[in-house]
Design brief:
alpha+beta, Transferase(Phosphotransferase), domain 1, six-stranded mixed β-sheet, Ser-Thr/Tyr_kinase_cat_dom
Amino acid sequence: MGTCFSSEYDEQYQTKQGENQPYTTKDALKIPPKQSVLDAPIIKSPSSIVVITKDVKDLRQNPGYSNLDIFSYDEMRIATKLFRPDQVLGEGGFGVVYKGVIDENVRPGYAKIQVAVKELDPEGIQGDREWLAEVNYLGQLQHPNLVKLIGYCCEEDHRLLVYEYMASGSLEKNLFRRVCATLTWSRRMKIALDAAKGLAFLHDAERPIIYRDFKTSNILLDADLNAKLSDFGLAKDGPMGDQTHVSTRVMGTYGYAAPEYVMTGHLTARSDIYGFGVVLLEMLIGRRAMDKSRPSREHNLVEWARPLLVHNKKLVRILDPRMEGQYSSKTAIKVANLAYQCLSQNPKGRPVMSQVVETLESLQSRDLQEESLFQSGSGSVTLFEAPDSKKKENQVKDDGESEATKETKM
């Protein structure tokens, strides 16, 4: 899942623990129940964010969060079957995510829905400020490619978030941990487009939002494999007016963070674009951003693979062999070139997310046309011919030897 790192101290989301009174089930029942919290997708512009609340008391009083349900800890216990181990969906530095169901048994009058409940670990690497950041952003943003935040629980020392349930799990799980069902080329490109749309929505706001932790484990897939961005604990308002960047503590995940951000702490929207390039590269090659099980020069995927992306003959030998025969040479080269640009060491050399979306949309349209032609047996589509696996491995080693660079140290 990657290793998180941080330095310095960020005061943006400081909170004072213990100043808020517990919220009980009795209080929760005073709120009229919602008939449905998963209606048809709508888009609510991030430019509507005016106030960044700094404590839970503000959350309850600020009308900007009236769309969120406030749950008691007892309700969360019922929804997750007392936080049973067999309900665990995942774990991380923040705590544990459980699968749950909210229905009449949890709160009278509540329409039955499946949910994911994230319980913050008080001893974890994330604290109240990250928890509040998540509520601040997902509580006010709505977009088809952002995970929907349904509500939260803040009672005594308990901090929980309730999201829509994403049945297919994370991109990381589907890309690297499943042995039987492999993501096809077309599905990977659709996921890349979905994620790009989510980032573009954040970046194109009147007040841009920088996601700051774009990686495969933060991209979740629903039952139809539609992709949505999750985990906004590290999100931050972007620069405004004459500002060129935001200076902040360095936080993120090894292998995904932009080099200029790691070196200087200067954060821009193009820092996210670098992370997008890393994920796109992972989907192209089928390897993790950081993999210490491989030879030392291949530990860092970007350093090893990026120089090979602009050499067509070398490119074919490093693409994920599980996708053999599923793409045309022209399309694969264009996607590789897009990843190459996103991974530019110079932030100004990276495209903006709206350009990334436009490129992926045009490629998806091309893919659909070529797939139709290929399935019809016209023979007009030229597919890569996969070389012998052993020969392929040796060729990649030879080609990458002179172009691999030293491993980045963060």
